[in-house]
Amino acid sequence: LRDRLKQKNNLPLPPGPKKYPFIGNMLSIPQAFEWETYARWGRECGSDVIYLEGPGLSLIVLNSVKSVTDLLDKRSAIYSSRPRSTMVNEFMGLSWLMSSLPYGKLWMERRRIFHQRFHPSDSAVYRPRQLAHVHKMLLQLVKTPQEFMEHIKYMNGGLTLSLAYGIRVLSKNDPFITLSERVAESLQSLSNPHTFLIDSIPLIRYIPEYFPSAKRMAREWHPLAARLRDAPFAAAQKDIVGADGVATPSFVSRCLENLVKSEDDDKSSYEIIKDTAGVFFLAGSGSTTAAIYTIILALMQSPDVQAKAQQELDEIVGRDRLPDLCDEASLPYLSAVIKEAFRQEPVPLVSLPHSLMREDEYEGYRIPAHSIVLGNAWAMLHNEADYPNPELFRPERFLKEGKLNNDVRDPIAISFGFGRRACPGSHIALSTVWLTTASILSAFTIMKPVDSDGKVIEPSMEYFSGVASQPLPFKCDISPRHSGVKALIRGAIDSDGEGMDT
Ligand code: HEM
Question: What is the best residue among 344, 416, 418 to mutate for testing ligand 1's pocket, by most ligand atoms within 8 Å of CB?
Answer without folding.
Answer: 416
